[in-house]
Amino acid sequence: MTDETLAGLARLLDRLEVPRAVLRIGEGAWLHDRASGGWAGDAQPPPLDGPVIPLPGGALLLEGPTLPPALHALASDLAATLLEAGRARDLLGMVSQTTLALHSSLSLQGILGPLSRQAAEVLDAEASSVLILDRAASVLRWQVESGGASRGQLEGLSVPLGEGIAGSVALTGSPIVIDDTAGDPRVARWVDSATGFRTRSLLCVAIRFRDQTLGVLEVLNKRGGGFSPEDVRLLELIAAQAAVAIENAALYERLEERVAARTRELGEANERLSGALQTLQDTQTQLVQSEKMAALGMLIAGIAHEINTPLGAVSSNTDLVGRGLRKLEGRVGPDGQGLMTSLHELTRVNTDACRRISDIVTNLRTFARLDEAEWKTANLHEGLESTLVLTRHLYDKRVEIVKDLGELPPVECCPGQINQVFMNLIVNAIQAIEGAGTIRVRSRHDGSYVRIEVQDTGCGIPPENLEKLFTAGFTTKPRGRGTGLGLAICEKIVRAHGGRLGVESRPGQGTTFTLTLPVHRSPQETTASGA
Ligand SMILES: Nc1ncnc2c1ncn2[C@@H]1O[C@H](COP(=O)(O)OP(=O)(O)OP(=O)(O)O)[C@@H](O)[C@H]1O
Ligand SMILES: [Mg+2]
């Protein structure tokens, strides 16, 4: 009962000068007292022995003398109109609440629950359910049921299109009202058996959008009577709102599916592109590495050859001179002894120099190990030593080299490639030291692994650069000095050997690169020579 209806009735009672009145509508009762000027809800109002004005769904009982018939009739009409207007306002409020509830969700389940509950409330029914049409299977499926003795027992069950009440409404689009279901053959009794609910009356309308049936909306058992034509119009109004909301939800779902599919496609395309880019970068790194190796190999072979030929001549001539000097020894008089000693000394110096040159050439060959691009067991110290000899001109007296070499077992590897790693690490360390500094080269054997550390007291690496170090092309060196491929190649070689290249650095204090390699080749490391 709205306040506005009660206020209107109060004005009417005032005009009729009724001291007290009781309004009974359905289960509710309100007492009006003219002296206090208001209404009060009262479950047990006092019995009044005055005129009774019958109203739709109740009555208005007055205290005092009987009203003249004309006044009685007028009062009766006025009271009924006031009640109707109040009820219409209530319904309008409930329908707009339903509309709001339906349009506040974009998911089908979010719409159907409130739809079922609001339909039952607006129609003052005990129970309600929503069935949605599965066009492909030609069946209606229960989606939601509310109220009644059971909940959820029907959800998922279906009824064929054209069968039963719901099926007929969906097929024809016309509403069905049954005020007494007893003996009506259209009513499917199995539904009541499934829910334990007893259907006495029902109203079922189609949910339609642009001439297409989407489903049906059903309300069961009106409290206090059957369903009126007004109830039918009301439920159809709610069903029409529901149809728009359901269609919107379906559109939204299709849109979401398309967005998800498109996002998936884009993700896949992105992955393919990243894969292609990675392959491209790997190929580029490989090409540069094999170019480098080939160029280095040719250079070393050329230098070794060029040096070896004159070195051979110088060393055999020195040998001959030495032997000649020894033959002359007995024949030289005391005056020539000083000269002989000097010549012996010069020959010895020449022989030493030749041996050193020969050592350098051997080191060059050891470093390039061009003949050893395949897997071998190698002494890693040899590679380290020759790398230090070959890079001496870069550090000379400026940088102190401290060697802390432990006992290393022979390691199964591609020695030429591992030497290339040593070369890159040592050259980087030298270049990181401006002016004087120290490079420590440490080696250790640890179970089935060997560990080589190259530690420098150079400029260090800022944390934000650490993760980019092994990316091909990353360099902080000026153009022409660094290609940024050194560490990328090292990392690839080490990975192909089943090892690991780690780095720790403190900006301004120095950097340590740690190379860990397995002593024995594991079965999957088969591609190192192609690294
Ligand atoms: N020991 C180190 N100390 C400080 N920074 C280093 C050290 N080693 C590498 N870096 C940094 O990592 C970058 C990449 O090194 P990388 O060896 O890959 O390339 P590069 O030395 O710049 O060029 P390239 O090796 O082709 O001559 C270097 O430019 C430098 O900034
Ligand atoms: Mg480098």
Essential attributes:
531 residues; alpha+beta; Beta-Lactamase; Heat Shock Protein 90; 3 domains; 6-stranded antiparallel sheet; 5-stranded antiparallel sheet; 12 helices; binds adenosine-5'-triphosphate; binds magnesium ion
Task: Identify the bound ligands.
Answer: adenosine-5'-triphosphate, magnesium ion
The counted number of beta strands is: 18
Mean pLDDT: 86
Cα Rg: 51 Å
Q: How many domain modules?
A: 3
Structure notes:
The chain is an alpha+beta fold. It has three domains: 3-98, no CATH class; 99-255, GAF domain (Beta-Lactamase); 369-530, Histidine kinase-like ATPase, C-terminal domain (Heat Shock Protein 90, 2-Layer Sandwich), CATH 3.30.565. It is 49% helix and 22% strand. It contains twelve helices and 18 strands. It has helices at 3-15, 69-103, 108-122, 164-172, 189-195, 229-328, 337-368, 380-390, 392-395, 415-432, 463-466, 486-496; strands at residues 20-25, 28-33, 38-41, 52-55, 58-62, 125-134, 139-147, 158-160, 176-178, 202-209, 212-222, 376-378, 399-405, 411-413, 437-446, 449-456, 500-506, 510-518. The strands form four sheets. A six-stranded antiparallel sheet has the order 8-7-6-11-10-9, with helices on both faces. Strands 3-2-1-5-4 form a five-stranded antiparallel sheet. The protein has a five-stranded mixed sheet with strand order 13-15-16-18-17. A hairpin with a 2-residue loop joins strand 10 and strand 11 (212-222). Helix 6 (229-328) runs antiparallel to helix 7 (337-368). Magnesium ion binds at residues 424, 427-428, 482, 486.
